[in-house]
Amino acid sequence: MDYLTLGKIILATPWLIGLSVYDFRKHELPNAWVLGGILVMLAIALGVGGNYLLASLVTAFLSSLFLLLPFFLRAAGAGDVKMLFAAGLIAGPGNTLNLILLVSLAGLLLALFMLLFRKVNPARVKHYCRTLFDFRYDRAEGRKHLPPPETESCRVPFGAAIAAGLFLNLFIQLLYSLEAGK
């Protein structure tokens, strides 16, 4: 059994639940909580060893690069980028692609559920789909009727998706270590 992964799950679960609930309620991720998680994981990684710390930092930087373009396009917040950095640190070395894939799938499912239950305005989705598939669609005219991207009806709390993706990543790591230990 991989006790490091088990310890990460035990330490990260209340942190992830707290950040997810806060993000759902306020649509922001508090710096103190996110940076606190980063500091705790840096201390743990340093305790494991210098090579582990360096490899975890590489995973964290590569993971946070995933949200850099959406951040510059104002589709993701700075808290999301910092939380994904922390998630990369927690996931550990060699888990960049797994983490990004699981976070993306969790974000897609969250957005679909929010659209299904009408918690998010579907106007932007309709606009982008028509832009891609309808050559007769007037993009400039359609853009005029979109709600501003800063409104609450357009925002998906991506911190919850990051939390779900990280939790699934850690759970898969734990299952893999249990299977390898047999």
Q: How would you describe this structure in keywords?
A:
mainly alpha; 9 helices; 182 residues
Please give a structural write-up.
- The chain has 182 residues and is mostly helical.
- The chain is built from nine helices and no strands.
- It has helices spanning 3-26, 31-48, 50-65, 68-72, 78-91, 96-116, 123-133, 139-144, 158-180.
- Helix 5 packs parallel to helix 9.
Shape: elongated
Treating each run of at least 4 consecutive H or I residues as one helix, how many helices?
A: 9
Terminal-residue CA separation: 9 Å
**Radius of gyration, CA atoms, in whole angstroms:** 18 Å
Helix content: over 70%
| Main sheet overview | none
Quantity of strands, as a count: 0
Summarize the helix and strand pattern as letters. HHHHHHHHH
Question: Strand fraction band?
Answer: under 5%
The average pLDDT value, as a whole number, equals 88
Structural class call reads mainly alpha
Weakly predicted, low-confidence segments: none
Task: Compile the SSE list and pairings.
Elements: H1 3-26, H2 31-48, H3 50-65, H4 68-72, H5 78-91, H6 96-116, H7 123-133, H8 139-144, H9 158-180
Helix pairs in contact: 1-9, 2-3, 2-5, 3-5, 3-6, 5-9, 6-9
Concise overview:
The protein has helices at residues 3-26, 31-48, 50-65, 68-72, 78-91, 96-116, 123-133, 139-144, 158-180.
